[in-house]
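Check my protein:
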Amino acid sequence: MAPRSLDEITGIGKTITVRDKRTGMPYRAGRIIDEASVLLDGEQKYVAQHVLLEEGVCSEGDPTRYVIRVGYYTQRTDGCFCFGSQHAPIMTPQELRTLIQRTIEKGWLRDPVI
């Protein structure tokens, strides 16, 4: 059954296909096994997806079998009910921790002063 609300949209169980930058050919990179999300203003759902990589697929030689992909789903507001999505590059857990740590060091995650 097709989802009827943005909150129902999920990538769990779906295959991620990416394009090889050298050959231009698509290949199966992995499968989404879990997802964490936050729904904002009813129009966008931001997600972090836990991805199990296919055998033989790795992130620049990193041996991890699990990576994280972030992105969002959005709902059209013109009356038609359909969804779109955008996803960022896939990161290893260490790469994501490093990125988050750098935002903490810059003070970006402090509570704002009113």
Notes: The radius of gyration is 16 Å.
